[in-house]
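Shipment paperwork, digital attachment
Item: protein structure file
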Amino acid sequence: MLLWKRLARSMVSRIIEWSPRARNEFDKIVAYLINKWGKSSAIKFINRVEEVLAHISKSPNIYPQSGQRKHVRRCVVAKQVSLYFKVDELKIELVTFFDTRLNPSKKKL
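Attachment content:
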């Protein structure tokens, strides 16, 4: 493939699709933050996720592959939360959000 085509592809933002599991885990985290720390903490988290997703859509391959599966990448959203996602030519699929304080054996990708 010509270098300029590869560069052009890497500069184009990809569509982000949320899996049902990612939506569910995101909702659980937001509900927890509201109940434990208040709406302002939840809003900060939501804003942080929006920033991360904008960055992932432009440069998904800068994030490391997860240790469990090579085709899944990991992004640290916050100290306690990582986002796992898959990348293909046209889209990015959000697989799940994972609370890093939990036992890693509960993480299923």
